Amino acid sequence: MTLYISDLDGTLLDRQARLSRRTLEILNQLLDQGMAFTIATGRTLLSAVPLLQPLNLKLPLILANGALLYDLKRHHSTCLAAFPPLSARALERAEKETGIRGLLLSQQGDRIYCRESGNKRFLWDGYFQIQNLLACGALDDSFAGRHTPGSLAPGRIFYALYMDDQAQDLARMADLLSWDPGLVCDFYKDQYSKRRWCLEITPKGGDKGKAALCLKQNCNEDRIIAFGDGLNDLPLFAVSDLACAPANACHEVRERAHLIIGSNYEDGVATYLLETFAKI
Predict the structure, then answer these.
(1) Distance, CA of 178 to CA of 162 (rounded, Å)
(2) Would you state the CATH architecture of domain 2-76+207-279?
(3) For the whole model, what pTM was predicted?
């Protein structure tokens, strides 16, 4: 049996960061026929779960670039990688030095906790809606600001996000943390906003490839067919039997792919699956 794993942004989602009607129809049709399909994304529960509610997904999602497995049906999460204690302290020092605060996600027991502070809440608009927390059964249903030193977040931190309309402070924070052996920093301009800059931080111990192998073993599947467009998809490609890149993927990803399919705004993933699922 084959496990199909797709990235979201730039791969399965269209230019408006949505699942098109055609993609939804095709995927649900194939899922009802028994296709083993799931998502591997850099997104967290906050933005991924509401997007994916219309899909009849049965397998756990790979979230936060492989740091978390999340079962939509059972509302159960498994943290596969977390910030080492020394890296968490380095993150706190960087916050103090730059004056930047952001969003942290951590796991403690069977709960996922959100922690945010700072006075730029408007920056979260478009990233997630507070009411969407209700869709995540494992997610703590309230935000708590961090007001005291040493109170980053309870449990094991597996994700941090910082946003600003100015790049300077975020770039400085990325420079401060780039040396840390336990962290992966991704500093970029939001592809869905003309002015928003983002700094995403995930644990170095996790990636989409490791999470995919874990899921493959848990599901007792024989092979993996993967779809992705960005550099964070390369670890997933490395463990896949067939790596497919949409035509809009970056050059490095297209070079590593076994197959180039239609672009994300042409429903490339769904079209490929519709044409090939019954034949594999």
Answers:
(1) 15
(2) 3-Layer(aba) Sandwich (3.40)
(3) 0.88
